[in-house]
Amino acid sequence: MQQLASSENSAKKLHSSQESTGAVQLRIKSANSPHDRHSQSKSMILSDNLKVIEPVIKEGLLLKAKIADGGKKLRKNWASSWIVLTGRKIEFYKESKQSAAANLKPGSKPESVDLCGAHIEWTKEKSSKKNVFQITTVTGNEFLFQSDIEFIIAEWFNAIKNAIEKLPKEISAVSKNKDFKIPRSSSSELLSNFEAESKEPKPENRRSLIFRLNYSISDTTDKKQVKSRLKKFINRRPSFKTLQEKGLIKDQVFGSCLHRVCEYNGSTVPEFVKTCITAVEKRGLDVDGIYRVSGNLATIQKLRFVVNHEEKLNLDDSQWEDIHVVTGALKMFFRELPEPLFPYCFFEQFVEAIKIQDNNNRVNSIKGLVQKLPRPNYDTMKILFSHLKKIAAKENKNLMSPQSLGIVFGPTLLRPEKETGSMAVYMLYQNQIVELMLSEYTKIFGSEED
């Protein structure tokens, strides 16, 4: 009778526990004793999802960043977080666990990481910070943890690693199977269902788990294959020079070699240079500060684009009405030549010539060097200096003397191939060479009709 009463009381307690907490408390008999009073008890709280209450192993403050969610890469965003490690998971709080628990809304849960089947390793590639380790879960989530204090981060690494290694397979399997639910039934049925689900996960979940475990391996393999194919493509593609020779890419006017632009125009002087000189002589000879005053850079760049991509150029168009835009574009053309109008190999010779004290010898030396220049360089130089000579002739109106033009065009038309510490001295010689060639134009180039 006493045993019957005890059973009824137990049933009532179990029923009331189910109604008040929505949970079931199990007593699992030990195999060594058939009696309830000698049985070994284990308590678990079972609700809609299996939940094992475990003590806190370690907690503290670390920097945390989530870099992947279900295999999808996320932007790395470091944030300080209160980390709580239990036997099977890590929970994240913005503050200490006690304070955070008090502030949590009813029914809400802190962010957590399931350690069942997770992998932990030190990493240097994922962050520029020091003392960083990474945890990768079976669901494809990736987290980074960091601390500037080495012994603290080392303790955390060892604690989490030990927790992962100690996780039993039964709990791990249940945690991976998200569809696993505990029905509210008798104790024996609950226990048998738990064992069956633990030993034999559903086929679709097993396939999903295999895919997740192989995700990182296949992802790395795909990256290597893409990288290999990209290298082969780059090695096989034709060079820029080859495409130019085949006529697939049109040579641009700005930034191209002088002789190549002349070949494209079928002349020894670039058409763009002739067009600009004609426009300046038509409406800019009397303009104050011509070639010294800068035009609007945005408009100059627009003109540069038009010259590079269109066949015909009309500088009489209203958008180029500012003559300083035209002069600015002409100076930019000479400045962007890969090799200046005075070739590199002639630079030192021109500098030595300008140092000659006797004026006649100096002029003859400069003339001899000019006549040795390649045909495109000589013809372009002749037409340019003839134009600048006309500018200097209007000095009383435009205030541009041969000396002023030398200061503007000296560094643009000739410069050394390698810059040295004596650039200030070279600049003085550059200005003097241009000034001399303007003053002695007829002696150096002959008459303008030649």
Task: Report on this structure.
The chain is α+β, with helices and mostly antiparallel strands. Helices cover 52% and strands 11% of the residues. It contains 18 helices and ten strands. The strands form two sheets. Strands 3, 4, 5, 6, 7, 8, 9 and 10 form an eight-stranded antiparallel beta sheet that branches. β3 and β4 form a beta hairpin. α9 (271-283) packs parallel to α14 (375-393). The longest helix has 34 residues, at 203-236. It is elongated. Residues 1-5, 10-51 and 170-187 have low confidence and may be disordered.
Overall, the morphology is elongated
Task: Give the structural class.
Answer: alpha+beta
Counting H and I runs of at least 4 residues, what is the number of helices? 18
Helix content: 40-55%
The Rg value, from CA coordinates, equals 42 Å
Low-confidence stretches: 1-5, 10-51, 170-187
Give the SSE order as H and E letters: HEEEEEEHEEEEHHHHHHHHHHHHHHHH
The N- and C-terminal alpha carbons lie at a distance of 137 Å
Number of strands: 10
**Describe the biggest sheet?**
8 strands, antiparallel
Whole-number mean pLDDT: 77
β-sheet strand percentage: 5-15%
Index terms:
single chain; 450 residues; alpha+beta; eight-stranded antiparallel sheet; two-stranded antiparallel ribbon; 11% strand; disordered N terminus
